[in-house]
Specification:
- It contains 12 helices and 19 strands.
- Helix content is 31%, strand content 27%.
- It has 398 residues and is an alpha/beta fold.
- The chain is elongated, with a radius of gyration of 26 Å.
Amino acid sequence: MVSKRGAAMSLNCVALVVAAGRGSRSGEGIPKQYRLLAGQSALRRSLELLSGIPELKAIQVVIHPDDLEFYRDAAAGFDLPAPVFGGATRQESVLAGLMALEAADPDYVLIHDAARAFATPALIRRAIEAGRDTGAALPALPVVDTIKAVDTAGAIVRTVDRNELRAVQTPQAFAFKTLLDVHRRAQRDGRNDFSDDGALAEWAGLTVSTFPGEATNIKLTTPDDFKRAEAMLRDNLSDIRTGMGFDVHAFGPGDHVTLGGVRIPHDQGLTGHSDADVVLHALVDAILGALADGDIGAHFPPSDPQWRGASSDRFLKFAVERLKARGGIIANLDITVVSEAPKIGPNRDAMRARIAEIAGITPDRVGVKATTNEGMGFIGRREGIVAYAMATIRLPAS
């Protein structure tokens, strides 16, 4: 859920979300922080988490200038300051974010990687408490595998004592002014090669403490990481439901019909209060039915003039947002169109792609089928079109 920043906070703490990396190893050709996980990007999941923590006075995001459109989609609906453009390294990006937050005069700051989308509120609160107590603290996990040091040829040199090792995560918590001063000192010294703020703090001679991290707080980097993340999401969404939707519209004057969000040339149009897209209307009812949340007419009554001629993608987006607000995802959408004409087959893939785009899922989760009514009834007389839809959704177990 989107949460607004409160005016009065018991602790003057802010969060800095680092989202300026290119993430090329994740696959799909887009930065990993914007790649969708069950319909939501890693960045948006991180923002939802942080927005639910009332102790945070502000959330500042650092992005790459090429990602502004991606960012706007991910941050839609959040009460955030304008994003800051990052630099060539993570260290430069963090400094840019800290400088943007300086005017707010915070006491503490959490530095969090956007690609760690599965941190919990408990971890965020541990970070805030550890930062307040020590001034520099990192979430860390014991290393469970045996660790070997190797030479340049890959031959083992020695076995490292894993009891002395920890795998660190984010969010990392610091006294704000101290961290900003350390970043500026490193900039003056020409040092921009630190992999995280903990390493920078060590270089500056600060004592850095650790607090318990979370095994599920994985950093999304490779395609395998995304597969693991999808599996984690599915495991948490064990309430599986199915809803059914139905819609019918009559033909009238016109030169096209809109089906599944796709404009299809035809010698007639479909009549209705909105754009009469029977496919999207049926899908809306299917999703709302699975949620036990009324129907399209309850949320968008035909008596309301504001919906006259409205594009039905707005209705489907609304239903999807209702689902997301309950922590759910779409597992599958399946549509059957009953019509003598126009032919659905040549437009099937375009419809699947458009429905997937509106719903924030991949096309392989959308089925579009078509049949005629064998010349019988009002469909057979080419007086209208019918669409049936099924939606399978997953919700968190209650």
